[in-house]
Amino acid sequence: MRTVEETVQARLILSPHRSARLRVVLSYLPEDPLAVRMAFPAEFSLDGTEEGRDAEDVVWVFARRLLSEGIELPTGVGDVHVRPSPARSTMVELRAPEGTALLRFETGDLRRFLWRSRLLVPEGEEHLHLDADRALAQLLG
Question: For the whole model, what pTM was predicted?
Answer without folding.
Answer: 0.82
